[in-house]
């Protein structure tokens, strides 16, 4: 992000001008606050789970439910668009196959569902690590601390806590664009 770059450059310059523990800690804090995975409006992404099936399962919407499946480049159920909510700056997550939106996160360990309109959709943020792993976390769900996309051992998308390995995703851009 441009603002992240400015923050890092400012902290780096402050350290160069006055090398100190305080300036060094400020620089480290600026680097740690960077958005590592950028989401672009108007693009489709695939979400590959970092844990299940040795990291080969992609989030898939099929037959009215979410599951993990190996990549199928012809399957629009594996394509998701992160649409920015103009009010909050956060995202609605829309699936290409049926144009439905991911609903707010359900109770802990319950399955995620889809809704027809943004008015009933979940509002999400993407938090990333330096390793390129991301958690997709609902901001208006049922249980705040257990609000992340998590592919459970039964191959269902459930609400769980973001630090779990199966709650971490590689968000892979495609060369497909939306009509937005």
Order of helices and strands: HHEEEEEEEEEEEE
State the end-to-end distance: 21 Å
What characteristic shape results from the CA principal axes?
elongated
Annotation field: number of helices = 2
> Measured on Cα atoms, how large is the radius of gyration?
18 Å
Main sheet summary: 4 strands, antiparallel
What strand line-up does the widest sheet have? Answer: 5-4-1-12
Look at the structure and give the mean pLDDT. Answer: 89
How does this model look, in words?
The protein is 16% helix and 32% strand. The chain is built from two helices and twelve strands, in the order ααββββββββββββ. The mean pLDDT is 89. The protein is of the alpha+beta class and 180 residues long.
Give structural attributes.
12 strands, alpha+beta, four-stranded antiparallel sheet, 180 residues, two-stranded antiparallel ribbon
In a few lines, what is going on in this structure?
Helices cover 16% and strands 32% of the residues. A hairpin with a 5-residue loop joins strand 10 and strand 11.
Topology:
Layout: H1 2-17, H2 21-32, E1 43-49, E2 58-62, E3 65-69, E4 80-84, E5 91-95, E6 101-102, E7 114-115, E8 124-128, E9 134-138, E10 148-151, E11 157-160, E12 169-177
Antiparallel strand pairs: 1-4, 1-12, 2-3, 4-5, 6-7, 8-9, 10-11
């Amino acid at each position: 992000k441009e603002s992240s770059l400015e923050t890092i450059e400012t902290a780096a310059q402050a350290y160069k001008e006055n090398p100190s523990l305080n300036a060094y800690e400020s620089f480290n804090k600026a680097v740690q606050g960077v958005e590592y995975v950028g989401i672009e409006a108007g693009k489709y992404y695939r979400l590959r789970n970092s844990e299940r099936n040795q990291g080969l399962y992609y989030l898939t919407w099929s037959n009215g439910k979410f599951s993990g499946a190996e990549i199928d480049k012809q399957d629009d159920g594996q394509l998701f668009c992160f649409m920015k909510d103009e009010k909050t700056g956060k995202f609605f997550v829309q699936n290409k196959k049926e144009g439905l939106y991911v609903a707010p996160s359900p109770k802990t360990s319950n399955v995620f569902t889809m809704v027809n309109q943004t008015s009933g959709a979940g509002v999400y943020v993407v938090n990333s690590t330096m390793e390129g792993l991301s958690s997709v976390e609902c901001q208006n769900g049922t249980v705040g601390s257990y609000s992340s996309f998590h592919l459970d051992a039964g191959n269902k998308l459930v609400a769980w806590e973001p630090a779990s390995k199966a709650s971490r995703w590689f968000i892979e851009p495609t060369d497909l664009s939306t009509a937005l």
